[in-house]
Design a protein that fits this description.
Chains A, B: Mg(2+) 3 binds at residues 25, 70, 206. Chains A, B: This is Thiamine-monophosphate kinase. Two copies of one chain form a homodimer. By secondary structure, chain A is of the alpha+beta class. Chain A has eleven helices and twelve strands. The first copy, chain A, folds into two domains: 3-134, PurM-like, N-terminal domain (60s Ribosomal Protein L30, Chain: A), CATH 3.30.1330.10; 141-305, Phosphoribosyl-aminoimidazole Synthetase, Chain A, domain 2. In chain A, the strands form two sheets. Chain A has a seven-stranded mixed sheet. In chain A, helix 3 links the parallel strand 3 (77-87) and strand 4 (112-120). Chains A and B meet through helix 1, strand 1, strand 2, helix 2 and strand 3 of A and helix 1, strand 1, strand 2, helix 2 and strand 3 of B. Strand 1 of chain A pairs antiparallel with strand 2 of chain B.
Chain lengths: 322, 322
């Protein structure tokens, strides 16, 4: 199968929302009047971002999900995406499953594939995603203010727990493992929540490299700090809620520095608490207030006595050790 | 050097034309009222699209140039781009040179880096480029009509000639080799010409996989055919013009199926001939009429007697043999 047949067979679908899709030198997008175009791109490389044994259907889902998660963090409504694919060989069964996972998530979000590139090479997937957001209303990392409450969506650390199970550093009951594996391999981007938080949240980021590391970006860009109680960690990890007992320090590590969560961390003025809860309810997304933004720079992790304690959470650096 | 330091040191530059650049979950673009956004993406993999020994400055240039060439083929004015980079290791000298080549071309076209992703992995570069084009005025592959003239910009086949010299299948005088190598490693996208042809050309494509193969896309999508005289081949190859003598069939192969040319092939009504020449002169881009669009489907290569002759030019398929 050649390059053009591969594209025609697995990826060329008519566009409805965008003026021009696959098949010309460029695709054409037309944001509605008054809208800005939000753009994000993520590169996934085998062995670094996914295991070679992963179900291609889940991989197709995840490759788009991690990008949609960036749109969610900006409060942007998905519109279109491009896909670049380097493949070691053309495997029709693999491609069919990959495309199924990809388009299933894309269709759920009304996000159309408008272009791309395919070539032979070590397995790598690069998706660039486009969303619309009313001009001036995008949620930025720089908007957090002292006094704001700090929130997260969903639960944290379970994806990393699955990765540790794959690596053999923890042993999990089958049910816990399957739930955690689902979080690792098939994250659900919080697009509806992100859009519902426009005009309510003061800042937002998606948690991909671990809460502590990603939160640090928000704090730095906003010129503020935050305090978060470590004691909340067990309740923020779904596996603990489901009854799994782990060493407390391990739970804290998973929750604050696990990575691959694709939840939103966001801030909002205390006066917006009801509006945040209403947005969460409207979009059927659990949210939890986990701390408070303060004027003094830095992230303070508080012990049981409410005192700041030292922890070296690194977050996930794609050039550092995992 | 970690991921964030790498980005800050080599790639994070303030944006002027776009509302938001690097450093948040998304970049923000705002096409002017009445403009559509043209989007294209190209993935370059070491060993397939470039040699491991290539000067990183030239590689940075080429990675963006091949994308700008797609904008040129649509008649779109460059606006912004994203860069995804998989690197086997962090080599500051290599990155500095790569960034220099990249930004030098980007600045020449007013095209801003607004986002990206970096990770460790086998060397691969994915750029997605964004341009503006007035709604409804993009040059498409589907607009060629019987009676139109078929044009190309610049010269064809020299990039492939350099590749063959690297492979040892031809031996070239030093001067010819250097000129051909420049075409292979540092192509100049025909952006000014593409934009000048809006409202004049009926269809356009950029020649990346070889003239015969890329022209076939235009003919198929336009529902037409074309006739081109093979005898023009020597004059379309810069090396021949410079005095190099090659086997005639080899010259035809280079010109019609060389690949990596990044010239424009475009069609225009015969009545637009003066307008085409004026656009070419205004943008200091040589153009040559090489044939005519006809109602009968298919590309007819004409021999010296003006009779169609059979040639099996494959064009460049990224999953076929090179």
């Amino acid at each position: 199968m050649g390059e053009f047949e591969l594209i025609a067979r697995f990826f060329d679908r008519p566009v409805r929302r965008n003026p021009l899709g696959i098949g010309d030198d460029c695709a054409l997008l037309q944001p509605a009047p008054g809208m800005q175009l939000a753009v994000s791109t993520d590169l996934l490389v085998e062995g670094r971002h996914f295991l070679s044994t992963v179900d291609p259907r889940r991989l197709g889902h995840k490759a788009l999900a991690v990008n949609l998660s960036d749109l969610a963090a900006c409060g942007a409504q998905p519109l279109a995406f491009t896909l670049s694919l380097a493949l070691p060989q053309v495997d029709a069964a693999w491609l069919g499953a990959f495309a199924q996972g990809l388009f299933s998530l894309a269709d759920a979000h009304g996000c159309e594939l408008v272009g791309g590139d395919t070539t032979r090479g070590p397995l790598a997937i690069n998706i660039t995603v486009f969303g619309e957001v009313p001009a001036g209303q995008a949620l930025l990392r720089s908007g957090a203010r002292a006094g704001d409450e700090l929130w997260i969506s969903g639960t944290l650390g379970d994806a990393r727990l699955a990765l540790e199970a794959f690596r053999g550093t923890v042993s999990l009951p089958q049910e816990v493992f399957e739930a955690a594996r689902q979080r690792l391999e098939q994250p659900e981007p919080r697009v509806a929540l992100g859009c519902a938080l426009r005009g309510i949240a003061s800042a937002a980021i998606d948690i991909s490299d671990g809460l502590a590391g990603d939160l640090a970006h928000v704090l730095r860009r906003s010129g503020v700090g935050a305090s978060v109680a470590l004691a909340q960690a067990p309740q923020l990890l779904a596996a603990t809620r489901a009854g799994l007992r782990l060493d407390p320090q391990q739970v804290e590590e998973l929750v604050f520095a696990g990575g691959d969560d694709y939840e939103l961390a966001f801030t909002a003025p205390a006066a917006q608490r009801e509006a945040v809860l209403a947005a969460a309810q409207r979009t059927a997304t659990p949210v939890t207030p986990i701390g408070r933004i303060e004027a003094a720079a830095g992230l303070r992790l508080l012990d049981a006595a409410g005192q700041p304690t030292q922890r070296a959470f690194g977050g996930f650096d794609h050039f550092g050790a995992v």
